[in-house]
């Protein structure tokens, strides 16, 4: 790869890096971006960023990765720290206490430009670490954050801003929220500048590959972090709505409803008694019923978290949903997901009250038996059965016949498995055996869940 | 249409739409490159309003196609006037050509294409329409033309400025996205929201607007079923003004929370999280 020199090289390199990071950029879109470059002010960096974003990034999930790469390919020029309002502050000589005071001020009412300049100055002061080998140095964000420890500023800012007001109330919440988002911004600016400096030392391509996290819809359900969960929750809701719509549409096709004789005759009066337009009675909307069986054991705990999210979201979409959680034995968990209930609260109550865990190890046979015995009549000819689990039964017999009779009673049955297909049938997994009875889909991330919903159509 | 993103910002501000860098650049690019603009984002951040503002700022006509489930060609594009055709056949001889302009009923898309005046075509809530409608839009959006089997191809006399909006309840097709510029509007920063309140609600004090914007930002950070929209912030400001409240203290918030939160569960959550007195 040649050293990016001219604008065209830089553009091509950038588009290339986006594709490598998993952002699909078609040739036509690349051309659009190049065209956009001719009409925007190139010196205005935010305008350039917006132009690239408008032409290349067509999904919010790709945006964080895009921003990281943009900052690498079109780095901000370092301008140095402008003097704060009152007394001038020299970032190289000021004491840590003075710097923290300045940061505290930025966190409550700092503009983006000031924040960025300060972050850059701090990286150049604290972020450098000598590495092995002569003349080599590395840049780190953690040393900057350790030196300034922005998290510990909260108490002091609260004290100053709230000055005498009652604590714990609305005012405090508002300030906390503002400071927290300020700290996030500061951390991001520091990380961006650290990446920029590493890129300067060792080339953009090298860092680009490691700097970008996979887009949200490709994050593995089994490896979800807490921060991702909140964002996943937002992704899952619309998907549940689509799933509900898909299951409904299946029945609607091919049935237009009965002829509305009265309306047809009335309409024909306008055309001299010739019934040109036929009117139909609106088809009676099919109310799909859904039964969800989800594995909530520890081995799939983050997946369980997601399945519960999906359950919750589906609960709001379907008129009749019954959800059952199982580990060793089964319990109905529908009541925890009342439409309109609070999802976070539902999860906590569920963990406390539901009777699912006896020995904490998944036992599919026992779970299926209990289910058939206690709730077997939940499944009828109008039910869709959705099973969510990894089909790992701790070497217990899988009870295939039982599953067959359950699936046979339902209208459709689907199984979503959070494990990669290669790991099916390894160890205690009996995935393929179950898959012969109920169609099983690998569902490890939002993209695959979306694909599954598409196949239902 | 516009000279530069700065020009966009200025002219949108003149019709009371406060834009930011990303919005202005995208609006400008859509005009400069002659491409449709797909706007996504949560409900109530001003997506539809943006299209209206562009129309007002440029003195264009606004043609709106509201999408919904079951929207079809006859409602979106054109339809033949059967009754008129039938009467014509009955009145004259049968070999009369009944597929001519005279019998064509224009629907929003065709109307936008055939208009001589500068036009902003707003295709609202595209995600609500069925997938087939997207197919219908593809020809229109890439070539600005429409093919009517009986008449031939109708090419735009003057390219409309197209804005599509979507709440992303359904992923739009790749083909559609490829033809559009993309703009994702998020909730405004508290600073921008304060300015929006100030411009929409004359007579409100600056510090009250600021307090409102910050409180709404806090509410949005809670995990609510329906986060307050910008329009609701403005409603809230109006409410406070009508009640003659000078400050947004806890009792006031608790008493007027219904203006911004529309679910009982959200209400309970906010009261609990913010430590408000029970209203």
Automatic annotation (TrEMBL), chain A:
Entries under InterPro entries matching the protein: UCP010256, Uncharacterised_CoxE
Q: Which Pfam families match?
A: VWA_CoxE (PF05762)
Name the record gives this protein: VWA domain containing CoxE-like protein
UniProtKB/TrEMBL annotation, chain B:
InterPro entries per record: AAA+_ATPase, ATPase_dyneun-rel_AAA, CbbQ/NirQ/NorQ/GpvN, ClpA/B, P-loop_NTPase
Q: Name one Pfam family in it.
A: AAA_5
Q: Which residues form the AAA+ ATPase domain?
A: 33-191
Query: Which SMART domains does the record match to this protein?
Result: AAA (SM00382)
Q: Which domain of life is it from?
A: Bacteria
Database matches in SUPFAM superfamilies:
P-loop containing nucleoside triphosphate hydrolases (SSF52540)
Matching PANTHER family, A to Z? MAGNESIUM-CHELATASE SUBUNIT CHLD, MOXR FAMILY PROTEIN
Regarding protein family, the annotation reads: Belongs to the CbbQ/NirQ/NorQ/GpvN family.
Q: What is this protein called?
A: AAA domain (Dynein-related subfamily)
> Which species is this UniProt entry from?
Nonomuraea coxensis DSM 45129
Q: What is the lineage of its organism?
A: Bacteria, Bacillati, Actinomycetota, Actinomycetes, Streptosporangiales
């Amino acid at each position: 790869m040649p050293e990016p020199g001219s604008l065209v090289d830089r553009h091509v390199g950038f588009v290339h890096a986006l594709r490598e990071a998993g952002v699909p950029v078609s040739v036509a879109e690349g051309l659009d971006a190049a065209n956009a470059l001719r009409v925007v002010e190139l010196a205005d960096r935010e305008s350039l960023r917006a132009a690239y974003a408008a032409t290349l990034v067509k999904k919010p999930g790709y945006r964080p990765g895009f921003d990281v790469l943009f900052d690498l390919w079109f780095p901000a020029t370092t301008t140095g720290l402008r003097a704060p309002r009152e007394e001038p502050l020299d970032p190289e000589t000021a004491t840590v206490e003075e710097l923290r005071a300045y940061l505290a001020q930025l966190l409550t009412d700092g503009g983006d430009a000031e924040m960025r300049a300060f972050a850059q100055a701090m990286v150049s002061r604290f972020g450098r670490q000598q590495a092995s080998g002569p003349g080599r140095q590395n840049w780190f964000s953690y040393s900057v954050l350790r030196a300034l420890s922005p998290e510990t500023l909260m108490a002091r800012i609260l004290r100053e801003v709230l000055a005498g007001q009652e604590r714990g109330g609305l005012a405090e919440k508002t300030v906390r929220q503002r400071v927290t988002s300020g700290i996030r911004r500061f951390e991001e600016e520091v990380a961006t500048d650290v990446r920029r400096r590493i890129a300067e030392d060792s080339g953009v391509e090298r860092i680009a590959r490691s700097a970008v996290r996979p887009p949200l819809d490709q994050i593995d359900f089994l490896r979800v972090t807490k921060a991702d969960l909140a964002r996943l929750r937002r992704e899952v809701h619309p998907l549940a709505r689509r799933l509900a719509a898909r299951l409904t549409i299946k029945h609607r096709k091919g049935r237009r409803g009965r002829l509305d004789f009265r309306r047809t005759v009335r309409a024909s009066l306008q055309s001299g008694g010739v019934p040109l337009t036929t009117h139909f009675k609106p088809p009676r909307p099919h109310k799909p019923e859904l039964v969800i069986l989800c594995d909530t054991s520890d081995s799939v705990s983050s997946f369980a978290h997601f399945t519960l999210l999906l359950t919750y979201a589906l609960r709001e979409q379907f008129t009749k949903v019954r959800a059952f959680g199982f580990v060793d034995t089964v319990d109905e968990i529908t009541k925890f997901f009342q439409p309109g209930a609070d999802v976070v609260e539902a999860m906590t109550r569920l963990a406390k009250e539901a009777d699912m865990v006896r020995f904490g190890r998944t036992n599919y046979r026992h779970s299926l038996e209990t289910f058939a015995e206690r709730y077997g009549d939940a499944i009828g000819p109008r039910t869709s059965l959705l099973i969510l689990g990894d089909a790992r039964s701790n070497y217990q017999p899988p009870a295939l016949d039982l599953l067959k009779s359950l699936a046979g009673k339902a209208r459709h049955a689907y199984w979503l498995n959070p494990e990669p297909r290669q790991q099916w049938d390894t160890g205690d997994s009996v995935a393929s055996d179950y898959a012969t009875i109920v169609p099983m889909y690998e569902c490890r991330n939002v993209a695959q869940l979306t694909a599954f919903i598409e196949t239902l159509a | 249409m516009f000279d530069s993103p700065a020009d966009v910002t200025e002219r949108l501000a003149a019709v009371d739409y406060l834009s930011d860098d990303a919005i202005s650049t995208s609006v400008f690019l859509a005009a400069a490159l002659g491409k449709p603009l797909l706007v996504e984002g949560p409900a109530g951040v001003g997506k539809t309003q943006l299209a209206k503002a562009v129309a007002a700022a440029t003195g264009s006509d606004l043609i709106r196609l509201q999408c919904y489930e079951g929207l079809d060609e006859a409602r979106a594009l054109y339809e033949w006037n059967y009754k008129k055709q039938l009467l014509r056949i009955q009145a004259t001889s049968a070999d009369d050509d009944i597929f001519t302009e005279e019998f064509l009923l224009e629907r929003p898309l065709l109307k936008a294409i055939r208009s001589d005046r500068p036009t902003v075509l707003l295709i609202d809530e595209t995600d609500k329409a069925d997938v087939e409608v997207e197919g219908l839009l593809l020809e229109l959006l890439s070539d600005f033309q429409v093919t009517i089997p009986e008449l031939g191809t109708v090419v735009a006399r003057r390219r409309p400025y197209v804005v599509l909006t979507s709440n992303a309840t359904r992923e739009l097709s790749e083909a559609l996205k490829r033809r559009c510029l993309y703009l994702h509007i998020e909730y405004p920063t508290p600073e921008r929201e304060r300015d929006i309140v100030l411009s929409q609600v004359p007579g409100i004090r600056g510090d009250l607007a600021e307090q409102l914007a910050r409180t709404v930002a806090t509410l949005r950070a809670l995990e609510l079923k329906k986060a307050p929209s910008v329009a609701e912030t403005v409603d809230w400001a109006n409410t406070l003004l009508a009640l003659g409240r000078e400050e947004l203290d806890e009792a006031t918030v608790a008493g007027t929370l219904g203006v911004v939160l529309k679910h009982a569960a959200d209400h309970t959550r906010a009261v609990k999280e913010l430590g408000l007195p029970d209203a």
